[in-house]
Amino acid sequence: MARENASDALIRDYVLEMRESKCRPGENAWSAVLSLAQDVSEALPYANRVFDGDFYDHAVHTLTFRVGERHYAVRPRELCIAPVENRADAENAARDIVARLNVVWKDRDLIEPRFEGKTKPDLIALYRNLPRTNCGRCGRPSCMAFAAALREGKARIHECAPLDGPDFAEPMAKLVALLPDE
Ligand code: SF4
Prior knowledge:
The two termini are about 35 Å apart. The longest helix is centred in the middle third of the chain and has 20 residues, at about 85-105. The chain folds into 2 domains: about 5-110, TATA-Binding Protein, CATH 3.30.310; about 125-180, 3-methyladenine DNA Glycosylase II, Chain A, domain 3 (Orthogonal Bundle). The chain has 5 helices and 6 strands. About 30% of the residues lie in helices and about 20% in strands. It has about 180 residues and is of the alpha+beta class. The protein has helices at about 45-50, 85-105, 125-130, 145-150, 170-180; strands spanning about 15-20, 30-35, 55, 60-65, 70-75, 80-85. The model has no long low-confidence stretch (mean pLDDT about 90). It has a 6-stranded antiparallel beta sheet, covered by helices on one side. The structure holds iron/sulfur cluster. Iron/sulfur cluster (SF4) binds near residues 131, 143 and 146.
């Protein structure tokens, strides 16, 4: 049964701070850091299920996930959002994710909590099912580099054009099985 009480909201108040990306200094790349007035630890296993978290450590209450092009990292009293273009974009993104997290918390009785992070596929198993010609058509310097990008969710199978050939039907099926999000 979903809960209706507005005072039950997970996040009722926060302070937003803009930070320049440490990875891309000088490139006008920003992240937004929300200092949360409430501790959100209890909600994280439910958010991990709903947002299909990339990483979750229940012991230290840390969750990372993606929605579209944005990455989110949540700790008990902190929520980081990246990338954001400017303060207005950050404020919109903050309002949106806070509303989503509040819905997750309100509906927690309907959600099966997940206490583990996502397991990544084996790198060598991915590599073995690629053509292994290092042709570079995927934009990576080698098939191993492409396998690593697949494992991290930074590449899609279709970027390897040679896999479309009839000789690769079986490896392609294995790759799809290894990467259920494809
Ligand atoms: S396009 Fe495919 S075969 Fe070529 S380097 Fe990339 S992964 Fe390897």
